[in-house]
Structure formats: structure tokens, C-alpha cells
Amino acid sequence: VNYLIRIHKTVDALIRPVPGISTSDRDGQILQRTKRGWMWNSFFLLEEWTGTGKQYVGKLHSDMDKEDGSVKYVLTGDGAGTVFEIDENSGDMHATRRLDREEKALYTLSAKAVNKTSGQDLEKASEFIIKIHDINDNEPKFAKDTYMAGVSEMSNVGAFVIRVTATDADDEAYGNSAKLVYSILQGQPYFSVEPETGVIRTALPNMIRENREHYQVVIQAKDMAGQMGGLSGTTTVNITLLDVNNSPPRFPHSTYHLSTPESAGIGSPVGRIKAYDADVGENAEMWYSILDGDGQDMFNIITDSTSQEGVITVKKQLDYESKRLYSLRVQVTNTHIDRRFEQLGPFSDTAIVRITITDVDEPPVFSRALYIFEVDEDTPAGSSVGTVSARDPDTINHLVKYTIDRHTDLERLFNIDSNNGTISTLQGLDRETSKWHNISVLATELSTALQTRVPVFIKVRDVNDNAPEFAMYYETFVCENVKAGQLIQTISAVDTDEPLVGHKFVFSLSTINPNFTVFDNEDNTARILTRRGSFNRREMSSYLLPVVISDNDYPIQSSTSTLTVRVCACDSRGNVQTCSTEALLLSAGLSTGALVAILLCILILLMIVVLFAALRHQKKKEPLIISKEDVRDNVVSYNDEGGGEEDTQAFDIGTLRNPEVIDTNKLRRDIMPEMLFPFRRTSPIKDNTDVRDFINGRLHENDSDPTAPPYDSLATYAYEGNGSLAESLSSLESAATEGDQEFEYLSHWGPQFKKLADMYIGQESQRET
After folding, report:
1. Cis bond upstream, residue 269 (ω within 30)
2. Order of strands across the sheet that contains 269-273
3. Where is 738: in which H helix or E strand?
4. Where are the alpha helices (DSSP H) in 69-196?
5. Which of 51, 159, 231, 499 could form a disulfide with 553 if both were Cys (CB 3.0 to 4.6 A apart)?
6. Which range, 282-286, 431-435, 574-578, is most confident?
7. pLDDT at residue 689, rounded to an integer
């Protein structure tokens, strides 16, 4: 084929018109071909060449080539040197590898002839195209391996389902390599496919989803127009029949039996019934209703939208003793009916539901839902208020006892007869304290302890048992320069009672008053008028005016309220300037500020006296000897107990054994010392002195020190000494009685014992006194 193409291009080049020679000349004489440059347009190659070696493309030849080896052919452009190569001497072109049209359909190259010696172009470069001819080497391919589609059930033949298309990479313009034909390999006789378009349609009428819902169809696309030898590809289409409402609901049973106790509350479920619909989704939605029956007024039915069940509920309170069996005719209907399939109906069904009522031991039932009684206030205790009544609704009547829920009668105002239900008062009632009393009465079956509660409202009727009184506290004053008959106050009254015809109060004075009078306005108010003029607050600063107020109810109640009238100094217009108490103080030359100052001074003096007494009390010291019997060897006693021989905290015994180590005062280590006196520097102790000399030295120092305390217990020594003026202080050698002892000698012992002498001599003098 390449050879033919090359020959064709050569012949075409030979017969092209030559410039400079007209057509008439060509017709009448033998033409002489003028030398010209070579030219061509395109070459053709088959893709996927399977021959051995390199594939020959064509031959390039220039008229300037004398075939003496001086001309070299040069190839440039798409794939030059890689995909295509040229023999520079002969001009033969070859493809170096197999070509794929689907990868690249054409190549554009340029060729020229060059003098090998000079390198000059012998002719102008010419451009040509190498086209790759297609072969059928690609099979058709679908966009998806699997398609999902749906079509309504009961569709007519030829109903559109889906369109599937395939593509072929081969050249559509060359032969039938890309001409596809569709066919169905699987899915007949239910579906068909159009060969040219790939449209899948239904092939059978009235396919029912309830019989079969899913179908799998295999579609083939084949090139070469479906002829033998063509390549093919397949895809799978999963087709689902979509539901339509073509199946009416149906009850699986014609009669249903249910039961419920008579105690079932209103709205409580009795049972469920369900019809079945072969459709799905909204086409299977149903609605239940009660058509008729003797239980139509006692029961109701609602639709459970989730389970599509009919739920029968209690509509009214049931009573086993009244009726024990009810019958209902229930209907179920589709909510979404497709008018295209009405001929398949009716899309409803009915069933009979029988409901049996079971007996339950019920609590007592009161004759009313609530009771309202009225009773007069101040009714004596034990008076009847009203009667409640309850019965046992069961077939066998049980005895009923009545009680009051004491949580509703905390004050225990009422009582009830447990047998007949009569409510009575336990104490008197006061309407002004509480107008209504709300209690709860319980009725209890003795055999089962079942209870029922009922509210009882007791209204306390009013009785005229309260006298009227002033509506408020009145601050009334009269001017000193007032005239007779002048209004000084308007009063009104209130009454906690509530008569049926309203209040009517009468105002009067208990006795004739020479200063004031009362004028009744007959509208439950009264005016206080002056009977004379010229009041003097120095003579009388205030007046008490008793006013009698009476009502018009039966029995008539009255009270006397006292009105205080203060005498005040007023200006010419009647405006109060000063009243009695303050005016009198001003007349005495004392103002309110002065009174306050006096009271403050008195208060300060009282505080000073109290403070002084408290300080005096704190200065008193407790005597060293608390009682007469508390006379011991040591003058001062401590509230701590020594530890015996092992006690090394109170006193360091090493001081007595080694006086050389003593150069500073040693203090007690177990208690905090009180620094009443300054430290005294002790005199140095001579070497090799014994304990006796050490103690004598210490005694001498304490005897000669006027600031030393008068008691020896600050430092306890093991040696008391001889020739002491006080001799032994031990109580063991004392006289048997206190009367034998005299303490005058203590005053002669020196300043050390002055404190002790004052204590005992003072006690002796007090005793004698």
C-alpha cells in the first residue's frame, strides 16, 4: 500500500501543470518537462504494524539529485529521528516502532535536500503529513460497569427504563471500526434495547412488583456494525420495579377478640389490630375507623403511623356491672389511592372486634365529684355541717368507712361520722379568720382497704358578731383661735362583718361634750365640729373624745372609739405652727435640741460610772491564802505537780552540788518567769566552799535586799539555817487551834516579811472586829 501511495504521489507530481506552458500548447505539441523542485502532500501508514523490521513509509527524491552521492536528505518535525528516520543518501523513510492511531493520528514533518560538500540547501524545505490509518483494535466501552434504574410496576410495553451508551476509541470516519450496535444478552423477555441508541424499554405488560421486584439485564455494544469479527463490550443494568398502589389492604382475620379491665383509664389502649398491604411506602399507609357497633361510644381507634396498626383505646369509663361485652365493626382504608388502578379495588376492608370487660375490685364511689356545705360562724361545737355518701360499685357491696384527711384539717376543726359520713364541727368557726375551709374526705372499703378521696368545701356564713371601729388612726388637732361650729376632722368606720344589705354605721357621742360635737353624714362618715371657740393649750394640751359607732345588722353591735384632739397654735389661715408638747417646752425656754443634749450628758455620765466600777473590780487581787484552812508550809502554791526525783525541769540540783558553775541567775525552765524585779548580780563564790557556806551567802543576800520578795519559794534550799528570827515555818509544830496563834511578831522580822505580816495581822483584826 505504501508503495502504491508513493507511486501515486510521483505520478501526481508529473501531471501537475508547469508554469510557462499553456494548455493549448500542451494539446498541439509534445511537451518538454521543465526541471523543477520536487513536492508532495502526505503519506499513509497502518497502525499496529505486525511485520518484522522497520515499517517502510516512502521515498523522498529530488531532481537535483544526480545520484552521485553528493546530496543528503534531512528530515525534521514530529517524531523525526525518534519515530521516523530517513536514509540521507537514498531518501527512504521508515517508522522505527509500531504506531497507535489512538495515541497520535498524524505527524507533520519537513524534508529538504542538502549538498554534502557545501552544506547548502539544494531546494527549499517542503512540509508533508504522515497519517496513521485506523484498524479495529479497540473494543467498545461503557461509562459504568453497572447501572441502576427503576420503572413503575404495571407499566405498558415500551416504557422507558434507561439509556446506556458506549464509546469506541477507533476512527469513526474510517470504516465501521467505531460503528456500534446494542443488543441484550440477559433480561429477556422482560426488557429490550434499541440497537442504535441503547435505550432499554419494558417488553412485557403489567409486571407486578409483588411477584418480582428486581431484574438484572446485560447489554452488549459491538463495533463493525455488529458484523462477525467485531469487538464488543458489556455492562450490567440492575432494574427495580417501583411500587404503585395496586394492592388493597386486607385483614388476615374477619373477627378479633380483645379484653380490658373495667378500671382501664380513659385513653388507655385495649389492643391492636393490623391489616396487611402488599404495597410499600406511602402506598401501604392505612387509616382505621369504627363504622358501627354497640361500643362505638365507649371505644375509639387511632392509627399508629409507624407500625400501621389500629390501636383501640377507651373513650368512656367502663363498668363491668353495667355491660360486659361490646362489639365494633372496624374499617381499614388506604390513605393514597391511585385512580389508575381503582378497578383493582375496593382499597378497604372491614373486620369485627369483640371486647370483653373483666371485673375489678373497685374503690368506693362518692355520689358527687365534690361537696359544698355552708355553716354559720360561732356555731357550737358538735353542730352538723353536711353529709357525704359513697357506695361500693362492685357486685358484692362492702362496708365503707369515712375519715377526714388530717393533712387538710391541721387545726382539727371538723369531725366525720365513720359510718354515715356526717361532718360536724369540733370547735367554733370564725368567718373573719377564714371564710372557707377545704378538707378531703376518704371513703375506705373495710375488706380491701381501697380508698377514694373527695374534696369538701365548707363556707362559713357571716354573723354580726363584730362591732364597727375607726377605719384608721386619726391625728386630730384644734387651733387655739378656732371658732364654734368649725370642722376639725372627718371620720369613717369599718366592720369585719359582711351583711347582705351592706354596712350602715351610726356615729354619736357617749355623753354630751361641752367642747366638741359629732354630726353623722349618714354615708358611713361623720364630722367632728367644735362646740365653742378659744382653746388654750397651756390650760389643756389635748382632749379625749369618745365616739360611739353602731351598725344596723342584727343583733346590733357597737363600740366606743376614742379620738384624741390636740390643741395647737395656728396662724390666721388655720395652718398649724406648734402643738401642745413642743409649745410648752418652748415656753419654758428649752428646745428639742437642749433636751437631746441633756439626755446625751446623762448617758455619758452613766457610761463613765460603769467603766470606773469595772476597772475597780479588775484591780482587786485574789488573796494568796484563799481560806483559813489553806495554810501550808509554802506561802505560795503552784498549780503544777513536780515529777519527783526525776524532775530536772523545775530546778537544777547541780547548782547545789557544784557552786563554782554559778555565775548567772538560773531561772525555772518549766514556766514563764514574771520579771517583777531586775536581776541581781551575785557575788562570786570562793573556791572550795561547801554547800552550807553557799546557802548562808544566799540567805544573807536576800535578807539585805529590800527589793527581794518576802517568800522563800522562789528558790528552795536544802538548809534552812540556825538562829532564824522566824524559826521554823512548818505547820506541824503550830498550835492546835487558830485562836492560840498570834501574829504580832511578824512585824518585827524585817522588811522581808512585811507582806506576810500585813496578811495575817489584817486577818486577825478583821476577825476581832
Report:
1. no
2. 269-273, 309-314, 299-304
3. none
4. none
5. 499
6. 282-286
7. 56
Cβ-based neighbour number of residue 595 at 10 Å: 11
* Residue type at position 283: N
Which three cell numbers mark 513? 361634750
Q: In which order are the strands placed within the sheet that holds 286-292?
A: 255-261, 348-358, 325-334, 286-292
What strands, in cross-sheet order, belong to the sheet with 191-193? 160-163, 199-202, 191-193
Reported as type and span, the H/E element at residue 375 is strand 371-376
Task: Find, among 522, 433, 535, the residue nearest to 481 by Cα.
Answer: 535
Q: Which three cell numbers stand for residue 124?
A: 527549499
pLDDT in tens, 277-301: 999 988 999 999 999 999 999 999 9
The residue to which cell 518538454 is assigned: 32
DSSP string, 534-559: ---TTT-SEEEEEEEEE-SSSS--EE
- CA 200 from chain centre, in angstroms, equals 58
Residue 670: how many other CB atoms lie within 10 Å: 13
What pTM value is reported for the model? 0.43
Cα separation, 204 vs 212, in Å, equals 13
Rounded CA separation 259/253 (Å)? 17
Return the C-alpha cell found at 296. Answer: 362505638
User: How would you label 639-667 residue by residue, b for 16+ Cβ within 10 Å and e otherwise?
Assistant: eeeeeeeeeeeebeeeeeeebeebeeeee
- Are 183 and 197 within 8 A, CB to CB? no
Q: What is the mean pLDDT of residues 56-62?
A: 83
Helix axes 580-587, 592-619, angle to 10 degrees: 80
Give the whole-angstrom CA distance, residue 437 versus residue 711: 85
Question: What helix, strand, coil percent values describe the chain, rounded to 5?
Answer: 15, 30, 50
- pLDDT of 4 reads 34
pLDDT digits (tens, 9 = 90+) for 614-643: 888 776 555 544 444 444 444 555 555 555
Question: Rounded to an integer, what distance in angstroms lies between the CA atom of residue 686 and that of residue 13?
Answer: 160
Distances 383 to 386, 403, 423 between C-alpha atoms, Å:
10, 17, 9
Question: In whole angstroms, what is the distance from residue 18 CA to residue 474 CA?
Answer: 147
Q: Is there a contact between 348 and 333 (Cβ–Cβ < 8 Å)?
A: yes
**What integer pLDDT is reported at residue 648 of this predicted model?**
53
When pLDDT is averaged across residues 560-587 and rounded to a whole number, the result is: 76
Q: Is there a contact between 23 and 31 (Cβ–Cβ < 8 Å)?
A: no
| pLDDT tens digits along 86-112 | 888 888 888 888 888 778 878 888 888
Q: Which three cell numbers stand for residue 6?
A: 508513493
Binned at pLDDT 50, 70 and 90, residue 708 comes out as low
* pLDDT tens per residue across span 385-431: 999 999 888 766 778 999 999 999 999 999 999 999 999 999 989 88
Cα(454)–Cα(441) distance, integer angstroms = 5
Angle at 45 between CA 42 and CA 49, to 5 degrees: 170
C-alpha cell read off for 554: 342584727
DSSP 300-322: EEEEETTTTEEEEEE-S---TTT
Q: Is 248 exposed, middle or buried (CB count within 10 Å of its CB: 0-12, 13-18, 19+)?
A: buried
Which cell goes with 136? 479495529
Take residue 148 and report the three cell numbers written for it.
Answer: 441502576
Q: Do residues 330 and 273 touch, judged by C-beta distance below 8 A?
A: yes
Contact 197, 107 (CB under 8 A): no
Element holding 444 (H helix, E strand): strand 436-445
